[in-house]
Amino acid sequence: MNIPEGSHTVVFAGLNSEVDSRRATVGFDGGEDGAVEVLSVNHRTQQINNTQNTGEIDRLLAERTDIENRIRELQIDLDVNSYEQNMLRVNLQPENSDAESLRRLLELHRERIRSIEFENGSLTDSLQVLRTRINEINKILFRPEFQPKVTVGELIVRVQASQAISAETQISYPINAAGWTPEYDLHVDAAGEPIRGKLSASLYNNSRQPWSSVDLILSTQIPQAGIDIPEISPWFLDYVSRGYTTREEGTALTSSTQISGTVSDAQSGEPIAGATVIVQNMRAGTTTDRSGRYSLIAPEGSRALVVNYIGYRSASEPITGTVVNFRLQQEMLGLDEVVVSAYDKSDVGLRGASSISTRIEQMVSREFRIRDQQTIPSNGDVQRISIEETSVASDMSYLSIPKINSAAVLKADIDEWESLFPLPGVAMLHLEGTYVGQTYIDPSTVSDTLQVSFGKDDAIVVTRTKQSDESDKSFFRNRVTRSVSNEISIRNTKPSSIDLEIMDQIPVSMRDEIEVSVLELSDGALENESGIVTWSLEIPAGETRSLIISYEVRHPSGRPVYLD
After folding, report:
1. C-alpha–C-alpha distance, residues 323 and 89, integer Å
2. Are strands 479-492 and 460-474 parallel, antiparallel or unpaired?
3. What is the end-to-end Cα distance of the chain in Å, rounded?
4. How far apart are CA 86 and CA 55, in angstroms?
C-alpha cells in the first residue's frame, strides 16, 4: 500500500461483519520506524450486492418461479377433480327408476370415480416432487453465498505518515462464529511399542464467508478487548454463618453410567458445538457435536459434570440422572482464534513429529501453522484437520485396586508426555487396532508422569475376600482390639506374562488413643503417611497369586470406629 505524506483515512473493506475495532490489530511494515502512526481505528458494517453466483441465483429463481406456476396448475386440477367427485356423489338418481338404469348409473359413477382417484394420486405425487425441489432451491438460496445482499464489515483507520512510503499492511481480528477444539488419537499396537499420538483440530466456520485455499494458523490465544491488572484485597476470616450453603454435589454413582445431554447458549438457546464436557475429578470427558449434544460414560464414583467453552463461563451440574443439560453464560472473551494469514516468525519444529504443521511458541500462546492450504466452507459442519503426529515411549502395565473395583485396568505411564499433549482435549483410545473408548487429558493437572487408561482386561481376574474380622474387649483397660484380614487373589488367564500393580490400604490413625498395627502385608510396600500398600507383581500366563493384608486396631470401647 502506497501512503502519501500527511494524514489519511484507510478503509479495509470486505471483512467479516463481526469485525470490532476494539479487538482488531493493524500494522504497517515499511519505511523507517514510526513513519506511519495509527491515530484511530473504527469499524462499521454495510449491505452490499452479492457478486458471487449471480448466474446461478438467476437460474434458481427462474426455476422456482416455473415450479410455483406448475404447482398452481396441478392444484387447480385437484380442485376440479374434487368438485366433480362431489357432483357424482350427490347425483345418484337415474332418469328411470328401474333396476337396470340404476345399475348402469352406478357402474358409470364407479368407473369415473376410480379414474379420478388414479389421476389424483398422480397429481399428488407430482406435487410432492415439485415441493421437494422447491425446498432444495430455498435451502440453496438461503446459504450465505446465494444471498442477494450480504453484510460486510469495514475497518476505518486514520493514519499519519511522516513521509511517503510503500507499506505492507497486516490486520487481524477475532470472530465468535469460527473456532476449534483440540482432539487426540492414541494408538498402542503392542506391549513394548511406543504410543503413537495424533493431534487434530475440530474446526468450524459459521462466519458466512467460505475460506478457499487459505493459509491456516490455529492459535490457542483468547483474544479480548483488554486485560485488567489484577488486584488483591484483604482476606478477612470470620466464622461461617449458619445460613451459608455450598453447591451440593450429586450422589456418587455406584456403577459406570452413560450420561447424555445438550449444551446451549443461555441467551439465544442456540446449541454450542465443540464444548468440552468432563466428569469432575475424573479422567473422562467428551465434546459436543454440531447440535450441542454429548454422551459419555461416567465412571463409578462420579458426582458432577463440568463444561468449558472458550467465550463462556464454566459451569458444573451434579449428576442427578442420566440426562444433564447445560445453558452457558457468555463472557467478554472470543473463541479460540483461527488466524487465516501467514506471519514471518521463526519456526520451532517438533522433534519426532511429522510435517503436517509447524508449532510456533508465542509469549502467551501457542500457534500451529498448517503446511497445506485449507478450504473450509461456511456450512455449519465441523471439519477435522490433522495438526501433528508423534510417538513417545511408555510403560504399559496393569493396575487393580480391588477394595474399590476388582477390574484390572491396562494403563500407560508416559514420562515425556509434553510433546504428545500440548493442549487439553478429548483423546480417542485405540488398542491393537480396536477403538476402546475415550478419556480427557488436561496437561495443567499432570505431574511428571502421565497415566492413560486403556480400559479393563477381563482376562485378569482379581478378587478381594475378607478372611477374618475379630474383636477382643479388655475389661481392665476398657479397650477393644479388633483384627481384620483380607485375601487378594489374582489369576492371569492371558496367554502371556503380565506386569500388575495391586494397591490396598491400612487405616491411618488420626488420634493417639487409636492404635493401628500391621500384621501381614505379603511383602507389599507400605507408605506410612497415607497407609497405601503397593505390590508390583509379574504373573506368568495361567498362574494364580494370593496376597494377605491384615492389621489390628485398638481403641476405647465406648468410641466405635469404622473398619471395612
Report:
1. 56
2. antiparallel
3. 78
4. 47
- Inter-CA distances, 364 with 23, 156, 361, 468, 526, Å: 17, 28, 8, 59, 43
Q: Name the stretches of the chain with pLDDT < 50.
A: 225-227, 237-248, 332-355
Give the separation between CA 153 and CA 46, rounded to whole angstroms.
6
Determine the Cα–Cα distance for residues 61 and 74; give it in Å rounded to an integer. 20
pTM, whole model, 2 decimals?
0.55
Written as one letter, the residue type at 436 is V
Take residue 275 and report the three cell numbers written for it. 464444548
- Tell me the C-alpha distance between 162 and 181, whole Å: 44
**pLDDT for 97:** 64
Residue with cell 516468525: 345
HEC string for 379-432: CCCEEEEEEEEEEECCEEEEEEECCCEEEEEEEEEECCCCCCCCCCEEEEEEEC
pLDDT value of position 162: 87
Distance CA 8, CA 162 (A): 11
Q: Which three cell numbers stand for residue 250?
A: 450429586
The CA distance from 312 to 334, in Å, is: 9
Instruction: Give the C-alpha separation, 542 to 12, whole Å.
Output: 74
Q: Please, are residues 23 and 225 in contact by the beta-carbon 8 Å criterion?
A: yes
Q: What is the largest CA-CA distance in the chain?
A: 124
The secondary structure of 472-529 as a DSSP string is EEETTTTEEEEEEEEEEEEEE-SSS-EEEEEEEE----SSTTSEEEEEE-TTPEEETT
pLDDT digits (tens, 9 = 90+) for 160-195: 988 888 888 888 888 877 888 888 899 988 767 888
Which three-class secondary structure state does DSSP give residue 139?
A: helix
